[in-house]
Amino acid sequence: MNALILERDTVILAFWMTVRLTAVSTVGSLVLGTLLTAMRVSPLPILRTVASGYVTVARNTPLTLVLLFTGLGVGANLGVEFSDDISVNNFWLAILGLTAYTSAFVCEALRSGINTVPVGQAEAARSIGLSFQQTLRLIILPQAFRAVVVPLGSILIALTKNTTIALVVGVAEASVRMREMIEVYGDQVIQVFFGFAVGFVILCLPTGLFFGWLSRRLAVVR
Question: Which residue windows are coiled coil (predicted)?
Fold first, then answer.
């Protein structure tokens, strides 16, 4: 057990990588997911078709394949580089894959939130001369976000756990370090596993509690 304590800095750095992957991917997923939502409810058929096709493909493709595509397809075959540093480049390729995958779920959550907004509000907005973009940005989306706080929290928790697959593109986050430590300390597998499990609980539990509180705070009274 003393040997495991000496690995404390390694474990902290591993979870810090997990936090970074989650934070950056969350921002990217919210932005892309909101854009996809706008496209899915757009009056233009071509935008609805493109967004619907993207969401369908992304939601039904394993995340491992998505990350393999960003790592091998985008990174290796297309030669897309974010940095000369391999570790930094792999980090952003992982972000790209996680964002592309998670944004599809964000889109569906927001679209369900839009369905909770009374149709009369959109009609009233059009009657006073607001455009589709203005109606969506000022009236529909704010209420949709408030309606789906809990589902978005669940998506964020799932994203945190999905970062463990970032090893596909060579990112050394928490799960990679756990495997390495199990190989080194084979006689202390239970302690290693329990320690990393507690680490993920510490990351995910406060997130769920926060979004639950936020949902109650922002609840829309119908």
Answer: none
User: What is the pLDDT, as a whole number, of residue 7?
Assistant: 64
Give every CB contact of residue 16 below 8 A, 6+ residues apart in sequence: none
Q: How far is the C-alpha of 163 from the C-alpha of 22, rounded, in Å?
A: 7
Q: How far is CA 212 from CA 12, 155, 160, 205, 219, in A?
A: 27, 13, 17, 11, 10
**CA nearest 169: which of 93, 103, 98, 82?**
93
Q: What is the pTM of this model?
A: 0.84
**Residue 105: inside a domain:** yes
Q: Residue 121: which CATH number?
A: 1.10.3720.10
Q: Which tokens in the block code for residue 162?
A: 């999905």
The answer for residues whose C-beta is within 8 angstroms of residue 203's C-beta and 6 or more apart is 15, 18, 19, 22, 160
Specify whether the CB–CB gap between 141 and 121 falls below 8 A: no
- 19 is a domain residue: yes
- Structural domain including 20 reads 2-217
Cβ atoms 106, 33 nearer than 8 A: yes
The string of pLDDT tens digits covering residues 64-73 is 888 888 887 7
Q: Is residue 222 part of a domain?
A: no
